[in-house]
Design a protein that fits this description.
Largest sheet: 9 strands, parallel
Shape: globular
Bound molecules: flavin-adenine dinucleotide
Structural class: alpha/beta
CATH class: Alpha Beta
Number of helices: 11
Number of strands: 9
Order of helices and strands: HEHEHEHEHEHEHEEHHHEH
Distance between the termini: 27 Å
CATH architecture: Alpha-Beta Barrel
Length: 288
């Protein structure tokens, strides 16, 4: 089933994002958690794609098991950075073979050890080029990434939003946002999308704060941390357990506010953490 159909009907839609474990870890631990994730009745689960295609086989394998063994709709992330057309086509063929109809099409980030990475080495420089290619190849449902505060590489917000519009026009069915911590940013972004003529659903991506490591993540992604969260992190800096609980509470409240304000659903970055996901959904009033 194409996920775009979900956004035409039932609301709110609940999506989980998971990532493949490190190569030295077997997939079985993830599949044990999937039993628990399934009980939370997500509308779909998306599986991330390792930078530069590392572990790409695992992404497809996990997405396939979610779809074909657990009976949950699946979406595979796909980044084009460093890939040839042949490699992308091989992956598209595999997804088709596994009956996966949904792709989150991304440019991807350069490998961490290559800050001067040359994007022109790959066949596609930006996500919009990958999206146009997928569109020509087959009838997939395509999602793309959106950045409420602008992508970290962009020099001007106006330019970044114009590029987002190009991406949507290339054939995007829905957008998923990068992490953010102030719901006003989301609603403000919707207004800007409207003025740009972006009409597809924009799904807020919620990243719960599980530990102080969130600081590295926000620094890398250029996303701001509101003062009240800075105070929360200061308060619990020596108490990881309480910080996690406060982070779950914050994420649950954010989801409630977003849905009450009319968001079509949420995309929860679960970080493969089942019990926190259960707790957050309880706080948001979405599951018992
Ligand atoms: P693009 O849309 O191509 O944009 C990248 C930058 O280039 C932006 O600054 C944009 O303004 C600019 N740009 C775009 N088009 C043009 C153009 N034609 N000319 C000039 N400039 C242009 N990464 C992974 O490696 N694996 C994952 O599984 C993964 N999942 C993600 C899931 C979500 C929901 C999000 C929000 C991000 C995810 N990422 C993932 C991170 C993502 O790959 C990075 O943020 C990456 O740097 C940008 O990817 P993009 O598809 O948004 O790029």
């Amino acid at each position: 089933m194409k996920i775009s159909e979900l956004y035409q009907g039932k609301r709110p839609t609940l999506a989980f994002e998971i990532f493949p474990p490190k190569p030295e870890v077997t997939l079985e631990s993830l599949f044990e958690s999937l039993e628990g994730f399934k009980k939370l009745q997500p509308d779909y689960i998306s599986v991330t794609y390792g930078a530069g295609g590392s572990q790409r086989g695992r992404t497809v394998e996990i997405a396939s098991r979610i779809k074909n063994q657990y009976g949950i709709e699946a979406m595979s992330h796909l980044t084009c950075v460093g890939h040839s057309v042949e490699e992308i086509d091989e992956l598209l063929a595999r997804l088709k073979q596994e009956n996966i109809q949904n792709i989150l099409a991304l440019r991807g980030d350069p490998p961490v050890d290559q800050p001067d990475f040359d994007y022109s080495n790959g066949a596609f420089k930006y996500a919009n080029e990958l999206i146009s290619h997928i569109k020509k190849k087959d009838d997939f449902c395509i999602a793309a990434a959106a950045y409420l505060e602008g992508h970290v590489d962009s020099k001007r917000l106006k330019e970044d939003r114009a590029r987002l519009k190009d991406k949507v026009d290339a054939g995007v069915d829905f957008l998923i946002t990068q992490l953010f911590f102030d719901t006003r940013l989301y609603f403000d972004f919707l207004d800007r999308c409207e003025s740009l003529g972006i009409k597809c659903p924009v799904i807020p991506g919620i990243m719960p704060i599980f530990s102080l490591r969130i600081k590295n993540m926000t620094a890398k992604s250029g996303c701001s941390i509101p003062a009240k969260l800075v105070l929360m992190m200061d308060k619990y800096q020596d108490n990881p357990e309480d910080l996690r609980k406060a982070g779950e509470e914050y994420a649950g409240q954010m989801i409630r506010e977003l849905l009450d304000g009319g968001a079509p659903g949420v995309h929860l970055y679960t970080m493969n953490r089942l019990s926190s996901t259960q707790e957050i959904l309880k706080i948001a009033g979405l599951r018992d």
